[in-house]
Amino acid sequence: MIKINEQVIDYLQQLIDQNIIPGARVAIINATQEEEFQLGNRIAIPKRESFSQKEALYDVASLTKVIGTVPLILQLISQHRLQLTDSVSKFLPEWQSPQVTVRHLLTHTSDIVGYIPNRNFLSAAELTAGLLGLRAGDKLGQVVHYQDVNFILLGWIAESLTGQSIQAAISDRILRPLHLPNATFDPNSSPLDVIPTELDSRRGLIVGQVHDPKTAILGEHSGAAGLFTSLADLTIVAKWLLGQTSYPQVVPDELITACFVDQTPMHSNSRSFGWDLRQERTGNYIVHTGFTGPLMVIDRVNQRALILLTNRVNLFSTRQEYKQYRERLTQIFMQTKKD
């Protein structure tokens, strides 16, 4: 048994006991060893319900960015249909800040500013026009500012090149070639249990529908969220990122390796292609999270990964509070070594 597993599971059980999360599905990969765990309940509100199946689909929110949109953009770059230095305006002429490039969007260094009134209550056409009406601020290429709009714009760029909606392109060009058994943008067509997210005053208990309000409006034209996926799917993705498997027809190996290298224009060593880039003594590792609760930590140097699926929004914990708990989990995973 690996001590790291015990500490991770103990900490997650504390979060469940403290009503921070209702439950969790976890995978821990250590070189050739892999273990999965299930803790707590599928939901806690409106009432506690036990998990009903071995596998389940979770709304993974912003993990969509790095599981779907990033690989698709890297694929288009490998096919020489897109370059990191390309202006967004080359593909989206309505966009009024031509100095913003594909690299800026991928690394969240676009510093996009502006305000869209009543954003969550607009039609798809109105929200699209509002997003295209935003502009780059005076910190372009100088600071990292994580924004969904970066990946919505990347999705629209991909649509202009593929002739498909971004979610259809991800399904056809990334999810299926990776042979992910359950990942989908259409959870209601899946035989798996779909884990509800929030009990919302306007929408009721959200189940089988994307939680993110912008993606709920934009539908298949959002590359920022919308993916529902399982632990089995994310384990396959993690092994791919660890270099344990190779799918060069999806994304060349050298571009997967580039996800572990600083890609920011100002060389801040804080973001790669989509991923939060971290450093430890032995080298870089990458992290990404989702608003609904999930987490992926990929440590390629030490050949290990942590995958967490949970629906923290079901218990209404504040985003900032939960971010601190999830960051603590990341540090427990990274600091604990094998016996």
From TrEMBL:
Judging by the UniProt lineage, the source's domain of life is Bacteria
Domain Beta-lactamase-related residue range list: 10-316
Q: Which UniProt keywords apply?
A: Hydrolase
Q: Name one GO molecular function term.
A: hydrolase activity
Any matching Pfam family:
Beta-lactamase
Which protein is depicted?
Beta-lactamase
Organism the protein comes from: Lentilactobacillus senioris DSM 24302 = JCM 17472
